[in-house]
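Per reviewer request, we include the raw input and output of the structure prediction for the construct analysed in the revised manuscript.
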Amino acid sequence: MAENYEDPAGSTQMFRAFVETPAPQAPGNVSVHRSGNRSGMIAVVAIVAVLVVGAVVWLAI
């Protein structure tokens, strides 16, 4: 065998170990409430949909 032989399974195991490590937590116990962002995005999508439908109807006239 060659001296610089690398085991392909070894690098896969190291990658899996890296991926499976939990992310470090921020200092303190901070709770993030994200429903406000989601409801805001839903409102924007609804407004854009209404504008698109209105434009299609206006162009069809």
